[in-house]
Description:
Elements: E1 6-9, H1 19-33, E2 38-41, H2 55-65, H3 89-101, E3 105-108, H4 112-121, H5 136-144, E4 150-153, E5 160-165, E6 169-174, E7 182-184, H6 192-202, E8 207-211, H7 218-228, E9 234-238, E10 241-244, E11 250-252, H8 262-267, H9 272-280, H10 298-304, E12 315-317, H11 319-332, H12 335-343, H13 356-364, H14 373-381, H15 400-416, H16 422-436, H17 440-452, H18 461-468, H19 470-482
Parallel strand pairs: 1-2, 8-9, 10-12
Antiparallel strand pairs: 3-4, 4-7, 5-6, 10-11
The protein binds glutamic acid.
Amino acid sequence: MDRNIVTRFAPSPTGYMHIGNLRTALYSFLIAKHQDGCFILRIEDTDRERLVEGAEDVIKSTLATTKLTYDEGPDVGGEHGPYVQSQRKEIYMEYAKKLVESGHAYYCFCTKERLEQLHEEDATGGYDRHCRNLSKEEVAENLAKGLPFVIRQKMPLEGRTTYTDAVFGEIGCDNVELQDQILMKADGYPTYNFCHVIDDYLMGVTHVVRGSEYLTSTPKYALLYDSFGWPRPIYVHLPLLMGKNADGSVSKLSKRHGAVSFQDLVADGYLPEAIINYIALLGWCPKGEDATTEFFSLEDLKKVFTIEAINKSPAVFDFDKLLWFNGEYIKKMDKDTYLSLAKEFVNFSVPSSIQLDKLLLLLQGRIGKLSEIAEKAAFFLALPDYDKSLFENKKNKVTPDLALAVLQEALPLLEQLTVFDNDSIYNALLQIAEKLSCKSGAVMWSLRIAVSGLAVTPGGATEIMEVIGKEETLRRIGVALAK
Ligand code: GLU
């Protein structure tokens, strides 16, 4: 790791880990790691009113689970710490004062009442720059009196500020449109607008990677860099994340589209690796020879991920696609890992006659997410009620009469078995086809309906029988015969 390229993930601990935030973390991580650079975690907690207890832990545990390891940050430290903004308060005040001295910021003593009055008169007008030209003496006097103050950025009143975003290209605005925004608040805490710039500079961040909601405020931040005489970083704003609405339209991804926090998705049985793979594709598209697959591990992504391949058009989060990805990941898991994870989703009681591991392995290739296990396993635990017409099957030439004959033959054969596993059951049942001169498909169909009560099942007749055991198999065949 070296510091030729430094990125950061700078979340505010205001709640759960939204999938959009996780994508920002991922892209930021990948941009650094593609060049063996440095990835920083910085906690932006200066908006004290919006703090949510435990949110910082959620951030850290999400990054740990997804293996987005940071080189510098809270807990791990680093030479540019502390990495929690509330612990850096003094630094910001010092830099704000430097800007006041150089004429790029000013003290504002306007009272809340005055600002409210202004807002009432013109809700969109913003601050009227009332304190922008206070004399040095007036300022000194007010400070000596202990009047509460904020520090505001002194925006240029003419000209234009532009920057080139690595994804969106040239972005700019006329300076007259810029408000004299607050840099330091009356509570002594900086605003996000100010402190993230100071930190990005002091922490040596070369690439600022974040959501496109900051695209249009970035000229203000660029001006802060200019005021200090610091070189601007490279800005990499990420495309909007949209969700699909019921009517087919799209809008900003939010809770009403479904589970949009990493934690909720994991609790619903999505695998972190599948989530990471899927969200990597939300705004980035592999190019050239890398474009032959959609499957990327984090290690693959480090190799192939480039800023040039980030898209600026909005990305649509598609739950069906994620489900598909997840199913593919579940299929590819090694058995033991799958079994131990799958068991966490066995929230129903399992009779001792059931071979749980075999049941879960039957489901491995047939679920999109682990929370589907309960629903898919239900028929193993209790035979659903079904109609005898289910036995009819054209393809295998099965009629209820043939099914009856098959089941009558099957019962004594199965009763005799001392070893009740898939192979023994299968071999025993083959005799029936010969005896009744029917297809083995007809035999298996009849038995599968009898032991499952379903037309479509994970696994075939013999596999299901092995899972539910001899006694239950015979009982279910009895039920079928009675029908
Ligand atoms: N704390 C900001 C957020 O969570 C960070 C924005 C940035 O990365 O600059 O949205």
